[in-house]
């Protein structure tokens, strides 16, 4: 039995909505200060990624019906399933990305629990690019990139600017 395209879309939307709700309930309990705060991807990016993926799948489905006429071919369902899986993984990536600052320690979690711990004293320079990103380096090695639209990015910038050993451009 093949699961219908409509069912896949409904499952995808519900999974993202429940995940965003779970993230919000976790965020509400945490207080931010100058010494301890969290930088996260804006929720609008997660929502935009989800809606773009769904819009792309619906558009392709309509084109397949319009030009092919028959949607019973297995390749159509395989292709749509792959698009939905890629969109779901991208949404999960955006939901799990975070940068936690606690005192002199920065814990960077880019994807699925992979953690990197960086001391602020290890950062030698930081700069804001024309693309709206904050990039932190130790020597020539890039440590992390944070979008300026991320929640808590302004607190991170002021924290890095207050450190005397960091060259800030």
> Oligomeric state of the chains?
single chain
Structural class: alpha+beta
How do the helices and strands follow one another from N- to C-terminus? HEHHEEEEEEHE
Unreliable sequence segments: none
How much of the sequence lies in strands comes to: 15-25%
What is this entry, summarized?
Helix content is 49%, strand content 25%. By secondary structure, it is of the alpha+beta class. The longest helix is centred in the N-terminal third of the chain and has 26 residues, at 43-68.
Label this structure with key terms:
169 residues, PH-domain like, 25% strand
Written account of the structure:
This protein starts with a helix and ends with a strand. The strands form 2 sheets. The chain has a 4-stranded antiparallel β-sheet with strand order 1-2-3-4. Strand 5 and strand 6 form a beta hairpin. The chain is α+β, with helices and mostly antiparallel strands and 169 residues long. The protein has 2 domains: 5-29 and 42-96, no CATH class; 98-168, PH-domain like, CATH 2.30.29.30. It is built from 4 helices and 8 strands.
Give the SSE layout:
Blueprint: H1 5-28, E1 36-40, H2 43-68, H3 74-96, E2 98-102, E3 105-111, E4 114-119, E5 125-128, E6 133-138, E7 141-147, H4 153-162, E8 167-168
Parallel strand pairs: 5-8
Antiparallel strand pairs: 1-2, 2-3, 3-4, 5-6, 6-7
Helix pairs in contact: 1-2, 1-3, 2-3
């Amino acid at each position: 039995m093949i699961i219908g395209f409509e069912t896949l879309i409904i499952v995808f939307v519900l999974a993202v909505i429940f995940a965003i709700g779970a993230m919000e309930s976790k965020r509400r309990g945490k207080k931010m200060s100058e010494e301890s705060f969290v930088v996260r991807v804006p929720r609008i990016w997660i929502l935009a990624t989800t809606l773009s993926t769904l819009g792309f799948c619906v558009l392709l489905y309509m084109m397949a019906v319009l030009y092919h006429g028959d949607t019973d071919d297995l390749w159509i369902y395989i292709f749509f399933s792959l698009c939905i899986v890629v969109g779901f993984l991208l949404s999960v990536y955006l939901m799990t990305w975070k940068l936690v600052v606690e005192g002199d320690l920065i814990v960077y979690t880019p994807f699925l629990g992979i953690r990197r711990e960086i001391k602020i004293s290890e950062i030698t320079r930081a700069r804001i690019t024309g693309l709206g990103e904050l990039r932190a380096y130790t020597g020539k090695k890039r440590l992390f990139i944070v979008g300026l639209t991320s929640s808590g990015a302004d607190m991170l910038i002021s924290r890095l600017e207050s450190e005397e050993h960091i060259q800030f451009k």
